[in-house]
Specification:
The protein is mainly alpha-helical. The protein has a domain of 31 residues. Helix content is 52%, strand content 0%.
């Protein structure tokens, strides 16, 4: 998984610092990739569409929900 052994990493203080910085960078990158909250304005909210691009009605969404729950 890693290109070098853990022993090799911790033999040198500098390698350990670089390794730790990489871990912190990865954690920051993963945690900061959260999606933004949707806009409070309903006019800018996206509509739900099906595979053909047609808008999905609430009745169709309920039918899908009922079909999934019937399994």
């Amino acid at each position: 998984m890693f290109p070098m052994r853990y022993r090799t990493i911790f033999k040198s203080r500098w390698w350990a610092l670089i390794w730790g910085a990489g871990i912190l960078w990865t954690a920051y990158d993963f945690a900061s990739a959260q999606p933004q909250a949707p806009a409070a304005n309903n006019a800018s909210a996206e509509t739900t569409t099906d595979g053909s691009g047609a808008e999905v009605t609430p009745e169709q969404a309920q039918q899908l929900n009922d079909a999934i729950n019937s399994f």
